[in-house]
Amino acid sequence: MRYCKLPDGVKPCSFTDPIFMTVAVWGTSFLELFLEYALPSYLAQGGIPELPRRGYKSTFWLYTKSADAETIRQHAQFRRLCCVTVAEIVCIDEQTDISSHSTVYETMNACHLDFIARASRAGAAMIFFSPDALWSRDSLRYTLDKAESGQRAILLAGLRANKEAVVEALEPHKLRITSEGLGARELVSLLLQHPHRITQALNWNSDEFDIGWASHLYWHVGSEGIVGRCFHLHTFYVHPRLEARPELAHDYDWLAKIGLWPKEISVVSDSDNIFALELSPTERGINGRIGVRTLPVLADWVRRYAALDHRQYARKAICFHTGKASGMAWGIRKLISGLTIQSLLLFSALLASLGLELGSDNRWAANRSRGGVLRIFFLWWLNRRGGARL
């Protein structure tokens, strides 16, 4: 990743710039979750109401499909949003031809591209919410504190829980979510009680590991919480210095293009500061494919899908906890997870230098026609049963 150096005399950010917020949501099941649980969590104590309290001008851009616009417009929580900030509904199917989109992610990216263009024209900082996530109270209070201290990007990791179980547990508390919101530790407790299979498949000690998309790796600390090491993070707040468009997604390949320097990018390492609990239906499958977790296999994933900035994120331990994240158990998990990440990074660099990659047939091959003795040895070793299962 190449960062632009901050020129002499340039201030970190301007607090007079507006803040634009966005979410993209459509479809009956997503709308119900968003309107009844997610949006109220945005509006809780220390959330969106923190913006006018500090004097910020803000606009919330809600992207949806035309069939769902009136349902949103008439809902009490959207009307409540309109009382706090300017709120605009954008029907993406009226803005862009989405008939050729093969996945929901293409349409989501189209929404984000339109939003980024609008915010860029206004010189606004941007906040990206997730439609299927509950946000801990005081999330924006923390975010604005960091922004006002000079941070131009706030990144965080959202962990997934079973939607049905969490919604059932929260049903008696809907009024409290609307009024004061949910604390981060309460949300982490729900995660530990009702983890989704996506979360379980990324547990380092899992017998059924998601080797196909290992963007997050988790080490459990008993019943107290989780230490996470994450290559891909959610871009929650960003205040670009340069205009640019993401090629794949705003939280994948965008930050490297918008003129930020490393000290301006902050990874939320403590769930007490911000925590987003993502809710997915029980039947939703994992993001990649289940297989045997080995160092070479995961290093090959890093080589393919983790850019330089992603690799730096994974060096930072993120603690998701229900109590104090301190003591020997937490220290040991941080140490073990850190050594694991360092090993993955070194091994991925070795694979890249030797031109070795794992094929779809689960056999290792050289992607260059010529090689030395070391490459031949590693290729032989990796394809042995023992080497492949390191």
Helix coverage percent of residues? Answer: 25-40%
Quickly give the structural class.
Answer: alpha/beta
Shape field: globular
Low-confidence stretches: 1-13, 386-390
What's the alpha carbon Rg, rounded to whole Å?
22 Å
Number of strands: 17
Number of domains: 2
Largest sheet: 7 strands, mixed
- Structure annotation, total helices: 16
Q: Oligomeric status of the shown chains? A: single chain
Proportion of residues in extended strands: 15-25%
| Overall mean pLDDT | 90
Distance between the termini: 30 Å
Query: Strand arrangement, largest sheet?
Result: 3-2-1-4-11-6-12
Written description of the protein model:
- By secondary structure, the chain is α/β, with parallel strands linked by helices.
- The chain has 16 helices and 17 strands.
- It has 2 domains: 331 residues, no CATH class; 34 residues, no CATH class.
- It has a 7-stranded mixed sheet, with helices on both faces.
- A hairpin with a 5-residue loop joins strand 16 and strand 17.
- Helix 12 packs across helix 14.
- The longest helix has 27 residues.
- The two termini are 30 Å apart.
How would the blueprint of this fold be written?
Blueprint: E1 19-24, H1 28-42, H2 50-53, E2 58-64, H3 69-74, H4 76-84, E3 86-91, H5 92-95, H6 104-122, E4 125-128, E5 133-135, H7 139-148, E6 153-156, E7 159-162, H8 163-170, H9 174-179, H10 184-193, H11 197-200, E8 209-210, E9 216-221, E10 225-230, E11 234-238, E12 265-267, E13 276-280, E14 290-291, H12 295-305, H13 308-314, E15 318-321, H14 328-354, E16 356-358, E17 364-366, H15 373-383, H16 385-388
Parallel strand pairs: 1-2, 1-4, 2-3, 6-12, 7-13
Antiparallel strand pairs: 4-11, 5-13, 6-11, 8-14, 9-10, 10-15, 16-17
